[in-house]
Write the structure tokens for this entry.
Amino acid sequence: MPTFVRRRVVSSALPLVVVILGVFCLARLTGDPAKLYLPLSATPQMRADFLHRNGFDQPLLVQLWDYLRGVFTLDFGESLRTGQDAAGMALRAFPATLQLAGATMLLAIAGAVVIGSWAAYRPNSLADRLSGFLSMTAASMPDFWFAIMGVLVFAVTLGWLPTSGVVGGPEVWVLPLLTLLIRPFGVLVQVVRGAMVSALSAPYVKVARSKGASERRVVFGHALRNAAPPVLTVAGDLTVGLVNGAVVVETIFGWPGIGKLMIDSILQRDFAVLQAAVLVTAVTIFALNILIDLVHALLDARVREAVPA
Amino acid sequence: MAALALAALGALAAGTGCTVANSDSLTGGADGALQIVLQQEPPTLEPCESSLTSTGVVVRSNITEPLIERDPVSGALQPLLATEWKSEGDRTWTFKLRQGVTFQDGSPFDSADAAFSIERAVGSKLGCNVDGYVFADSKLEVATPDPATLTVTTAEPDPILPLRLSFLEIVPTGTDTRAKVREPVGTGPYRISKWDTGISLRLDRYDGYWGAKPAYPAVRYVWRAESSIRAAMVTSGEAGIATGIGPEDGAGDLGVPFPNNETTALRMDGNVAPLNDVRVRRAVNYAIDKNGIVRSLFLKLGEPAGQLVADGVVGHNPAIAAWPYDPAKARALVAEARAAGVPVQTPITLIARNAQFPKVAETAEVIQEALGQAGLNVRIRMLDTAAHLEYQLRPFVRDAGPTLLLIMHGNQAGDAGFTTSQYLVSDGPQSQFGTPALDDMVAKADRTTGAERARAFGEVLAYQNEHVVQYAHIAHMRGLLGIARDVRYKPNSATTDELRLAEVRPAR
């Protein structure tokens, strides 16, 4: 197992390096931040001062060196927009995204296991077809549209929920969670159903039944355990996607997470914050990927052996 | 299944008696705070940055105050921290300051603070927006003959110095002069109570305020990027006021229209063919159906424009009408230019900014179609703010080919001098070309005052339309402010940049 972990860390680290270098280079291709931050009629001297103060007058390699040093010391400099510590801004925003993504995935997995197993238990029944249709619909629902409709129905028309926000009771979680939940939930129901259908038709299930095991034990004790690896892999990928792509939900609901911070930083050419936010996200995704592989390997010995040296 | 889950969760929320949207925070929720929802979080509350809309809308006249304020309706200057002012000669101004005023840290306000604030913001190394935008290249000398008197001397005669000072917020001596401050102290009716970065900003009423006590004991600002959510917050009762909503965001009769002093126009690069031919630039003006755009795209929130400044700004010329929509004339002018050898088929890039105003992309498409009908070859590029600024501000993007830049100009200062110095003179930061004659007219107009000033700038704007034609004006815009039923506030032309909390009251 330690060998497996070492190999996975090494093979996953390369994309991390590419991301770290890529965000630095791409950010600098997006234009001159001086125009955004200086007065419209700034003099050339004011512009030169700005570039000097922020190190943008240095050769690109020097800027890159400073940035890489910052990566190792978690010192990304200050935000151009707010003057605050960039790493601090990224680290403050990140838990909000993780909480949302974590809660979403827990609900999605729990719901999908119940509905997917139920559908797989009676393949081609009305319930199965209904759950197939609804989960397909959920998986293809644009989250932006769903969010706005949710606000219209539950906040404006019915007045049951707040439109947005992050401060308050559990009610502030409902619409962001549902919006984020709908797609992974739809995907996972399909995956659980597929995995369970093949698991339930496997010989060991027949053996278990012939030995007199209860149906609950057959489904949850035998079939689900064997159906778990593909489900967990997909759930892991979906979690990575959530961490990376909660932008729409965070923007609409004013959820102060890392996705919104990244978009704001790109629009504001706030390079320091963008770099810090991307690094925090990339490292988390890196760690999540390792974790997913580990869980997968623990569940399935073939995976452990398949990773090349 | 998702819908079922949605309904179940909704029912769960209702059944468990969660705090519902309507019960919190509007005009007296738990803390009695008025909630205002903005488009974006203020990046800073530094007073010398308050010409940035997102900062000014919170700071100006709420946390800090200037010496003088401009009445957004009449345009007249009114006393605030200065009670009276007069000029001695044509370069020195004397201001008598209000007594008995204290800053929110308890320290008294006097002329030393006023002088300090001016020196901190104008011509300093801080690089303040107010310096560049309002006091461009000004050299000011300040003196404090006594604690209640301030004199300001300009290097050149500046007849609108008091107007300029109405943009300069006063901070106490001791405020950092080497770095901008994020949370300032001022003399305004509200002080910063808690800024929960990313979530909300709360101001509390300052009990030592020298003026009338404002109605709300506290105000909480939150921000949502999506305009339909801001509108929904007002209709659902979560917010008392929502800024920057559009006519299609669903606020219904809670959306209150107001003239926001913004004017949309196309800026034409007259240095590059085919736009270097005045016939082509005139054709662009004739080809655009401004009435149609205002009626169908802006849902009548605006009126066709013939100049860059709206009514109410000194220098607005009431005699200038919007160019008539005359597609036949546009076609004829393009044909005439083509016959004279102008390469009218050269692709022209129409550059617009995402989300600059409601229906901006559709506006660009309508213009593209109209210019195509006139015989020009136009393609659209939609850019974000930073990329758009690369084209908007000097130094401009080089080798961009012929460009039409869709701009929106707001003259919140109320004087056309601020527009002409930016947009019309040959070397203006946002002007691509001009003529020596126009530059001369602008310089002369800048030295005048009163009715003569209004007339001189009115002539400048008419001359631009007739002889230079750098702009194809589209519309003087109107904004929409969402105001909840239990809040009373009358928006005005300054509201976008300065939402005075003291003017907001509960309706009941």
